[in-house]
Write a structure and sequence with these properties.
alpha/beta, Rossmann fold, 3-stranded antiparallel β-sheet, binds fructose -6-phosphate
Length: 245
């Protein structure tokens, strides 16, 4: 695992945006696995800015990690809406090259389509955030993890963490559709971005210990040959990670 520590979270986000831009420049048909949440917001701002300055996404395709169940894409809390707002409406990616799983379609059919979208051409780069409990996508801690795309119940930790996007905690959906752990690990490369005290325990388990555990799903990323974790200096300090050199 490559570990990058930047001075600020803005710097970490810019670093990740550069990785994505370099990929799109070297491979204009790149397939990107995308995440939502607070973490990648500045990455998407940067990519929008780079597009404004000429970066071409016309042959890029995208697959998103997850979506809430029971929420339509025109609902501002949906991940589809987030992606349209934060990225898709600012770059020239073609609508037909975008896939965000639907949380309202027939689950069996949607999961089949989701798997097809993941494996019909390898994902070149999977962007990840990390939950306070160590979830990636919505692969929640437990005795077992799923290999493939599935519908999952959200843990209380995740519901609490995501309540800030809703008027009331009671409005947070309790289920989501998500890529499985095997789907995430099937990407040619993984870039995980993290910042903030709430992520310290999970990032510590990822960077400071050698074990892999279903209780902290992000630890599985240690097994990926081309994974990069980008954090800021404050988080590195919190977990006791010493920058080498
Ligand atoms: C979002 C996703 C989640 C988030 C994680 C962190 O598509 O898959 O795993 O990356 O919950 O969320 P933020 O960035 O809001 O702290």
């Amino acid at each position: 695992m490559q570990i990058i520590v930047t001075r600020t979270f803005a710097g970490a986000s810019d670093y990740v945006a550069e990785i994505i831009a370099d990929l799109v420049l070297s491979k204009p048909t790149a397939k990107l696995g995308l995440a939502t949440g607070s973490t990648p917001e500045r990455v998407y701002d940067k990519l929008a800015d780079m597009h404004f300055k000429g970066l071409d996404f016309s042959r890029v395709s995208t697959v998103n990690l997850d979506e809430y169940c029971g929420v339509t894409g025109d609902n501002p809390v949906s991940y589809r809406y987030y992606m349209n707002e934060k990225l898709f409406s600012h770059i020239n990616v073609k609508p037909e090259n975008i896939y965000v799983p639907s949380g309202i379609n027939n689950p069996e059919e949607e999961l089949e389509l989701f798997s097809y979208k993941i494996y019909n051409g390898k994902i070149d780069l999977q962007l990840l955030g990390i939950g306070p409990n160590g979830h990636v996508g919505f692969n929640e801690p437990g005795d077992k993890l799923h290999r493939a795309a599935h519908i999952t119940k959200l843990t209380q930790s995740t519901i609490d963490a995501n309540a800030r996007f809703f008027n009331d905690k009671s409005e947070v959906p309790t289920e989501a559709i998500t890529m499985g752990m095997g789907d995430i690990l099937s990407a040619a490369s993984i870039v995980l971005l993290a910042s903030g005290a709430s992520k310290a325990d999970a990032v510590k388990a990822l960077l400071m210990d050698d074990y892999i555990t279903t209780q902290v799903p992000a630890t599985f990323i240690k097994m990926h040959a081309a994974a990069t974790v980008v954090i800021d200096y404050e988080l590195a300090n919190m977990i006791g990670y010493k920058v080498k050199g």
